[in-house]
């Protein structure tokens, strides 16, 4: 009687004469190979059934009593035991040969797949090399175009700067010419203004001399009527008029110099009035004109008050003369 190929011993890949130690070793080895978690999802169901069969075989054979009962049921006692063992060994050898053949076929298939992958990689590398060369060529052309564009831009910038410098030079030259013309016109205006100023100053001096002459004439006529004209004043006025006439032909610096005021000495006698006292008499027109005439000649207010009081005998003070002069 021949044994079944899917017996517990075949499941553990051992013989009926194996020891407990060999049974444990075979179980551990097969459990690592047949565990469902070590296989992909499509094959997990099949390996789950095989793992359950392996666990069932180990649970039966690891117990001596259960193993004895299993051998009795399978008719493995007496001379049939050796025959079964021999057949089992032959079956194991056949399975080993099939496994080796399958392994060789798998190795061959893996080699073929590896060769195909190598050829594919080589082909891809060739394609990638060609693509890389094409990319490098495109990059080189792009860089060359960029360099050419930068060179043209640099040339345009240089031309623009040169034109800007030329425009700036022209502008500065025009600015210098305008400034020179402006300064020349300014000098001409200044010269005309100075000439006009000299003419106005000459006319003003002439008018002042004429006014002083008229004032002196009016003062003489007024003093002649009163009989109080001072001969010294006439001599002073005539000498002043002569000096003014002689100085009319002097330079601009002499004409612009102010006359020095005449100052009386501190011990000059003041008759009939004090410095801060005024008689309060009403001003007459000849008295006012004579007071303005003296002040315009450059006399200080003390001298003006003394001369006016001596000529018209009115006892005018400095404050009264200055106030009347300001009021006009």
Description:
The radius of gyration is 73 Å and the shape is rod-shaped. The protein contains ten helices and no strands. 78% of the residues lie in helices and 0% in strands. With 328 residues, the chain is mainly α.
Topology, pairings included?
Blueprint: H1 8-12, H2 20-34, H3 41-61, H4 64-73, H5 79-226, H6 231-246, H7 252-256, H8 285-297, H9 301-312, H10 318-327
Helix pairs in contact: 2-3, 5-6, 5-8, 8-9, 9-10
In a few lines, what is going on in this structure?
The chain is mainly α and 328 residues long.
List key phrases describing it.
single chain, mainly alpha, 78% helix, 328 residues
Q: Mean pLDDT, nearest integer?
A: 78
The share of residues in helices is over 70%
Counting copies of identical and different chains, the oligomeric state is: single chain
Number of helices: 10
């Amino acid at each position: 009687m021949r044994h079944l190929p899917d017996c517990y011993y075949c499941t553990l890949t051992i013989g009926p004469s194996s020891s407990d130690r060999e049974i444990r070793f075979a179980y551990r080895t097969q459990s690592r190979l047949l565990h469902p978690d070590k296989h992909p999802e499509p094959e997990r169901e099949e390996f789950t059934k095989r793992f359950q069969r392996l666990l069932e075989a180990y649970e039966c054979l690891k117990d001596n009593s259960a193993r004895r009962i299993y051998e009795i049921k399978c008719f493995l006692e007496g001379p049939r035991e050796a025959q079964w063992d021999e057949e089992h060994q032959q079956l194991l050898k056949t399975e080993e040969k099939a496994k080796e053949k399958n392994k060789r076929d798998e190795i061959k298939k893996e080699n073929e797949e590896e060769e195909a992958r190598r050829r594919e990689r080589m082909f891809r590398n060739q394609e990638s090399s060609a693509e890389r060369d094409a990319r490098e060529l495109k990059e080189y052309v792009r860089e060359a175009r960029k360099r050419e564009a930068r060179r043209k831009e640099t040339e345009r910038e240089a031309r623009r700067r040169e034109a800007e410098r030329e425009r700036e030079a022209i502008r500065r030259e025009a600015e210098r010419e305008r400034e020179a013309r402006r300064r020349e016109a300014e000098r001409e205006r200044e010269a005309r203004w100075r000439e006009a100023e000299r003419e106005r100053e000459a006319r003003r001096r002439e008018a002042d001399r004429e006014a002083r002459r008229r004032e002196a004439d009016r003062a003489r006529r007024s003093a002649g009527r009163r009989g109080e004209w001072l001969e010294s004043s006439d001599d002073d006025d005539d000498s002043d008029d002569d000096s003014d006439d002689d100085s009319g032909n002097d330079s601009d610096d002499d004409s612009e110099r102010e006359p020095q005021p005449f100052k009386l000495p501190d011990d000059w006698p003041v008759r009939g009035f004090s410095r801060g006292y005024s008689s309060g008499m009403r001003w007459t027109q000849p008295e006012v004109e004579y007071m303005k005439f003296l002040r315009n000649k450059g006399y200080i207010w003390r001298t003006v008050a003394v001369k006016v009081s001596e000529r018209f005998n009115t006892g005018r003070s400095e404050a009264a003369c200055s106030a009347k002069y300001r009021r006009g």
